[in-house]
Amino acid sequence: MQALPGFRDFLPNDCAMRNYIFARWREVARRYGFVEWDGPVLESTDIYKKKSGAEIVDQLFNFTDKGDREVAMRPELTPSLARVVAAHEREFKKPLKWFSVGQFFRYEKQQRGRLREHFQLNCDIIGETNSAADIELVALCIDVLRAFGFSEKDFVVRISDRSFWTDFLSEKGVSVERWDEFLQAIDKSGRESRERTAEKLGKLADPIFSILEGGGKNKTLDQLVDGLRERGLSDYVAIDVGVVRGLAYYTGIVFEAFDRAGKFRAIAGGGRYDNLVAQLSDNAVSMPALGFAMGDVVLGELISETSHAREKLETEIAQGRKIDIYVVIAKEQRRGDALAQIQQFRDRGYRVDYPLTSEKVGKQFQIAEQLGARVTVLFGDEWPQAKIKNLATREELLIDNQALQSHIERVLSRSS
Ligand code: HAM
Predict the structure, then answer these.
(1) Which residue lies with its CA nearest to atom 14 of ligand 1?
(2) What is the percent of the chain where pLDDT is above 70?
(3) Mutate-to-test residue for ligand 1 from 101, 118, 122, 287, highest number of ligand atoms within 8 A of CB
(4) CB-ligand 1 contact for 272 (6 Å cutoff)
(5) N or C: which end of the chain has fewer CB within 10 A?
(6) Which helix (H) or strand (E) holds 268?
(7) What is the pLDDT of residues 368-409, one digit of tens each?
(8) 302 touches ligand 1 (CB under 6 Å)
(9) Which of ligand 1's atoms lies nearest the C-alpha of 266?
(10) pLDDT at 386 (0 to 100)
(11) Rounded distance from Cα 302 to ligand 1 centre (Å)
């Protein structure tokens, strides 16, 4: 019996890593003043057909529900966000700074860094056209990665501007309807053969290749890099007009974060999508927007392969697993008294464990050490006193059971 291809079982270590990732995501998004929201995991298929672009529609996990609705497991959050924002537009002061942590589903070919389910952090700013928002968003993406212990030697955010290419295409007389086709070909050019890309680009192949090879930039991109330089973050970014992003709705700045060694697929990606809210609401509401999403799969692989990031993760996981108190039951007649005390400790918020069934005292102390307990409290012949042992200092004390709670509080606050 195995999980479906591209789906993961999260054993305790995997869950610990997932929680670690989620905790860093939430912590840094909140540092930037973002508030958390979420949408449903099932949406009408139309919302993706309307706006995400052909690639995502091909990858939908979709079906007809029992009410004959065409529905899809969400492959991304942005269309849901645009829908929700259009519906609740009047309830919130702009700009909105919203983040979300959730699971997404894409029927992709399973490969390194790409599965059929994954988790994303989404951070979006709605209702702001000023480039200050673009700078803030890229800085946030960088700081989220820095929170995992990565430095500018480990990753780079490649930034680009779709307007650079749409200006180019319009100059070359390419009609607006065909822009998406060209943008998709440029997006895939890094992953496909030169011949295949040239075929798609036709007579524009040579000038496009020469821009991709020689580099290109514009005022918006320079401004973005300057803004990041002011914050001391410019070493984390590089202008790369080869990044155009696969999703159809982007209108301006786009960016993707990659590991410096170039071993993995993108860790994160995003950009401006100033028309999506209007398009999804049939022009009822129009609001500029920008955002990015970071996935847990590539990020997890990069953490595992980068020693300083992995050590940070391991330390945190080990710390998070430790318990405060292990109650040693040396005499079975004292089990009832021990359980009454355990209940009180737990009510105070302490992490407490004890043997569910009769166990040799030596073995119980061994388990206490393995669980990382800070103190043991032994219930045995000494009752109505209990023996407290500080496992770090090895100090032992006999305490009257009435005074146990207050004494433990003192010991634990001293050693924390
Ligand atoms: P995306 O580039 O499609 O953008 O996905 C964002 C990130 O999610 C990727 O960089 C990758 O880390 C992760 N990811 C995507 N697909 C998979 C997969 N099959 N397996 C594992 N990880 C995956 C978006 O989804 C946009 N909606 C982002 C956005 C938010 N734009 C504006 N706001």
Answers:
(1) 295
(2) 99
(3) 118
(4) no
(5) N
(6) strand 268-272
(7) 999 999 999 999 999 999 999 999 999 999 999 999 999 999
(8) no
(9) 10
(10) 97
(11) 16
Phi, psi of 149 (to 5 degrees): 95, 5
Query: Could you give the count of Cα atoms lying within 13 Å of 349 in the half-sphere of its Cβ?
Result: 3
Q: Residue 297 — very low, low, confident or very high, per pLDDT cuts 50/70/90?
A: very high
Residue 190, pLDDT above cutoff 90: no
349, 369 contact by CB (below 8 A):
no
- pTM for this model (two decimals): 0.94
Cα-flanking dihedrals φ and ψ of residue 67, to 5°? -100, 20
What letter would DSSP give residue 27? Answer: H
**Can you give the C-alpha Rg of the chain in angstroms?**
27
Tokens of 251: 């209108």
Ligand 1 centre to CA of 306 (Å) is 22
Ramachandran category for residue 272: left, alpha or beta (phi over 0 → left; psi -120 to 50 → alpha): beta
C-beta 158 within 6 A of ligand 1: no
Distance separating alpha carbons of residues 180 and 189, to the nearest angstrom: 14
